[in-house]
């Protein structure tokens, strides 16, 4: 356990530091805000890919959804814990440099309680999400399950499947490729993967439990302890909220591009 924790504490900050150095020397015209933002996204994509791979491995290895176990569940929970703490720091750093770019912080001023407070207000839901995983989900996974339910923890790992595509979308915008077919295609993948792996995964878990014990899907919640259903609702609620935000953003981009095409047709080539 300590080895996995130490590896995570080295790997994720090390990747962040390395990406910042590489991007700073490669894209010399980028600001510190650009470099930090893309570096954060790259590390996030790597963590999410590892989590998804671990989750798929666990899910496909467990034939009994309650009693089968896999070493990767506890191993990755510990390995990934430092990422959650580090990502809060990386998000704050990105917020700090963005405020500098926008002129909300003087170029010569440093970090302050006001900057931290503004960050907490702006990104409170993501911070709460990370702290919940770190301070509640990880202890439950490691100490309170009595060795049961590795299959369901594996399913939770796979919810990260959409994260690399979200990160790719942000990076494409940073590279000025937000009006390309690649960005539109990635947006579709984001919506489909997010809906499948962060929302449909919950009825899938209930269905698998019911299948294991011969219970119809609609009766499964009544066969589970109340805290299990409440916990799932607590996790599901922000996923639905974020999915609605993604849909609204996709709608805005679609309407903007549609208006752009309409303006282009109006200003098309003229014949004399």
From TrEMBL:
Species per Swiss-Prot/TrEMBL record: Seriola lalandi dorsalis
Name one cellular component (GO) term: endoplasmic reticulum
Q: Does the keyword Transmembrane helix apply?
A: yes
Alphabetized, the UniProt keywords read:
Membrane, Transmembrane, Transmembrane helix
Q: Where is the protein found, in the record's own terms?
A: Membrane
In its UniProt record, which GO terms are filed under biological process?
lipid homeostasis
Q: Which SMART domains match?
A: TLC
Question: What's its membrane topology?
Answer: Multi-pass membrane protein
| Protein's recorded name | TLC domain containing 3A
Q: Is Transmembrane included in the keywords of this UniProt record?
A: yes
Start and end residues of each TLC domain = 33-255
Q: Which residues cross the membrane?
A: 71-92, 124-145, 185-209, 229-247
Which InterPro entries does the entry link to? Answer: TLC-dom, TLCD
């Amino acid at each position: 356990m300590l080895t996995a924790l130490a590896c995570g504490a080295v790997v994720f900050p090390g990747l962040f530091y390395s990406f910042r150095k590489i991007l700073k020397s490669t894209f010399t015209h980028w600001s510190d805000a650009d470099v930090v933002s893309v570096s954060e996204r790259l590390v996030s994509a790597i963590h999410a890919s590892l989590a998804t791979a671990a989750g798929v491995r666990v899910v496909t290895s467990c034939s009994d959804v309650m009693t089968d176990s896999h070493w990767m569940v506890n191993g990755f929970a510990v390995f990934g814990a430092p990422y959650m703490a580090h990502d809060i720091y990386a998000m704050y750093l990105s917020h700090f440099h963005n405020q500098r770019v926008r002129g909300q912080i003087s170029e010569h001023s440093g970090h302050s309680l006001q900057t931290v407070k503004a960050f907490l207000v702006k990104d409170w839901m993501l911070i709460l999400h990370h702290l919940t995983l770190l301070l509640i989900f990880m202890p439950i996974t490691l100490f309170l399950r009595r060795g049961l339910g590795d299959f369901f923890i594996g399913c939770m790992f796979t919810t990260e499947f959409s994260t690399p595509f979200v990160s790719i979308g942000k990076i494409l915008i940073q590279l000025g490729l937000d009006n390309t077919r690649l960005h539109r295609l990635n947006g579709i993948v984001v919506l489909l993967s997010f809906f499948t792996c962060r929302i449909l995964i919950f009825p899938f878990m209930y269905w698998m439990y019911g299948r294991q014990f011969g219970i119809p899907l609609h009766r499964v919640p009544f066969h589970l302890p109340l805290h299990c259903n409440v916990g799932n609702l607590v996790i599901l609620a922000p996923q639905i909220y974020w999915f609605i935000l993604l849909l609204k953003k996709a709608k805005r981009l679609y309407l903007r591009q549609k208006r752009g095409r309409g303006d282009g047709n109006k200003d098309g080539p003229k014949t004399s």
